[in-house]
Amino acid sequence: MDRLIVTGGRRLSGSVRINGAKNSALKLMAAALLAEGETRIENVPRIMDCLTMAEVLEHLGAKVTWDDSTLAVDTTSALGIETPYELVRRMRASIIVLGPLLLRHGRARVAMPGGCNIGSRQIDLHLRGLESMGAEFSYEHGYLEASARSLSGAVIYLDYPSVGATENLLMAAVGATGTTVIENAAREPEIQDLAAMLVEMGAKIDGAGTTTIEIEGGGPFGPARRRVIADRIEAGTFAIAACATRGDVLLRDARAEHLDLFLAKLADAGAEVHPSAEGVQITMHSRPLALDFVTLPYPGFPTDLQPQMLALLAGAKGTSIATENVFESRFMFVDELNRMGADIRTEGHHAVIRGVERLSAAPVRALDIRAGAAMVIAALGADGTTEISDLHFLDRGYEDFEGRLAALGAEVHREPSMWPEASSG
Ligand code: UD1
Prior knowledge:
Radius of gyration: 21 Å
Bound molecules: uridine-diphosphate-N-acetylglucosamine
Number of strands: 24
Oligomer: single chain
Strand order of the largest sheet: 22-23-1-24
């Protein structure tokens, strides 16, 4: 496995372009299955998760071609219904093809997901919602078998505003007979991006971005041309990296309106935050100040920035408290931070972070996508040279992370494995 070698103490400065959002691109790619013809999606990041989703689509019979960051998905002969374990286990978001497949073919066979090790992530809300629209499910040999003679509109109350469930239901509802109402829907900007693409394809959707989404079923759907919104999590990651190094970085194309609460917290930590037409400028002059934060569904503090924020607060002046409300067990990476001299104790879904003057380099692992980013941030501010292993997690979510950090002045490089990579299945 490759390792990232990071020598701390370099101040980040300059500008970095924020790529298209992973969590939006994946869903727009799945939505392409609803149209017959070629959909073009621009600003798709070249990360492992998007490459895996491209494989999922190809396995279903679609023709996928990349031209730089533009992806063409031709679904003319996409007649497959199965997403195999080999792909789903690499990325549990593959489950997002369930809604489109049920709508297009009345059947789907999707391996049960694995994915990030950040707690049990169930799909009961996806299934209950689809059931109330007429779908039936059974499990066989690790596969979810789904069928629906037809899908009909329903009023669906989500127990929790699940991002994936909202998206799956949205994609099934656009072609169902009659009206569907999703109550307690997730409000993430990526859902608004997906809804905008579906509308461009011919769907009738009202209320995306609010807690009640109303969908008037219709179809058929034509191909779309859509540009993926900027990745708010990548923007937040670079913002925190800038703060951890007392840097001065322009996050080009970042959208401040998608990061309201997060940017307010960075300001509480002592950062200067300047949104402009170009993006968001982040400047930090001194050691960060401690603060408390609580992760919540959008527009709350994003759980996908919790690990990176902990890495920053590990070196803050004072004691901070973080509460993780979205995923259980999302503090597993804390042990890795503590190996670098952090003083963090966790109790259930709370973490108490006693800021230390300086972290010290140590060999550490990237335990999931965002925990991996947190280790890089910790290393950028630490004393000495840190080696980070298990980089495949980082590669799932960040395109050329080390190259872009190096362009900002970080001392970082990738050391290729001396041994042949084990098969990732
Ligand atoms: C998406 C994002 C992920 C982000 C998360 C929350 C993608 C590819 N991933 O994941 O990066 O961290 O939103 O912002 O977009 N849950 C259930 N039953 C369900 C569905 C979810 O209990 O049927 C629970 C999960 O176990 C978890 C919580 O709800 O505790 C949030 O999950 P959800 O909002 O669905 O996140 P994802 O769509 O998986």
